[in-house]
Amino acid sequence: MSHRLYGVKFDPKPSFKHSASTTTQLEKTCRKDAGLPPDVDNSSFLPPQVYELLKLALDQMQPQVKSLLTQLHPDIVLFDFAHHWLPALASELGIKSANFCVFSAVANSYLIVPSRMPDPNQPPTVEDMKKPPPGFPETSLTGIKTFQAQNFMYLFKSFYEGPPVFERIMEYTKTCDAVIYKSCVEFEGPYIDYLKTQLGKPLLLAGPAVPMPPSGILEANWAKWLDNFPKNSVIFCNFGSETYLDDVQIEELAIGLELTGLPFFLVLNFGTSGDGAEAKLEASLPKGFRERVKERGVVHTGWVQQQHILAHQSVGGYLNHSGFSSVIEALVNDCQLILIPQKGDQHINSKFLSRVLKVGVEVNRRDEDGYFARDDILNAVRTVMLDVDKEPGRSIRAHQKKWKEFLLNKEIEDKYIANLVEELKALAHEA
């Protein structure tokens, strides 16, 4: 994830064009004394401990950011969760600020609202995190497991004497002028309403923000391989550039995919790149695995053209970590969702997708540590890709089709964007 600030200047006669000529690219300004490896400016492929150093490096950039804002003086500056100090700095310069939330409304409404921690000196317990906060909408979003609640405790921990994530978010939520979610009432209505009551300030919606179709074409080697298989038969498995499975999970996942009998494209990452990642990949795979699946399975480490792959006609299933942007890409491409959330908001997203929207299936896991076995992978894949005429697979496909049609409705998307622009203009001109 790359953390950026966006300044918005409203012209009296705006022409809402976006191109290279209207975008100013600022040079990298992370301080070299922050303890980060050379040339690191985003969290992709970073181990967790280094990711925390990236936050501290961003905190040290306040003088540079202040200088830039003084020079550019936008009407509004948009920021993400990493810049908790930005609203106070912008206010000092007479600039409005709006947090552009990169997480789902449902996840934030469960995890990061004032009612989650009413006493600032008393963080919630693991048992507290298994339950929704007071006033949370009554939905089927239940069943948080012990290992998931334990993972949520990260939000309340301090690293390198910096403020915890929960404290960062509460700080900027109190001081910013508005919060923006790339969501819509049709998708997350009850959770959006709950957030409005909790935050006590304007909550603006950008709509579902369906990604534009990718430019260019799929790399020839991947296109040629995918072309060998029938329509909707391939399972694409990718957990993104910031999620890493351990060797036990990789073995169970790999053998589970093998047991399905379906072709698959498995992408694994390890917090490193190049030869180091390749060596870790080979060491993590079950003995003889590549040879056994060579006619129908590809295993890769590193970046791939995910949107192009999901759009290929042979890809019919997407086994993933429940990152919301990736899920949207899959839904609009008719890919069935098999969910294995790994951290934070992903656990809530997965419950929402599988139990509320009912557009996918979550892989069964052990309560205490999140372990999943090869049969758990097989059973989840069978539900949405093999037993398609049985329940619950049939209903899941019907719900998936309904939401695909909604997400591809350009009129809805345009309406939300137009409303957002008007709301931002009104915010910019408030006294």
Automatic annotation (TrEMBL):
Entry keywords, A to Z: Transferase
Keyword Isomerase in annotation: no
GO molecular function: UDP-glucosyltransferase activity
Pathway where this protein functions: Secondary metabolite biosynthesis; terpenoid biosynthesis
A matching Pfam family: UDPGT
InterPro entries, alphabetized: UDP-glycosyltransf_plant (IPR050481), UDP_glucos_trans (IPR002213)
Cleaved signal peptide residues: none
Similarity comment: family membership: Belongs to the UDP-glycosyltransferase family.
Protein name: Uncharacterized protein
Organism for this UniProt entry: Carnegiea gigantea
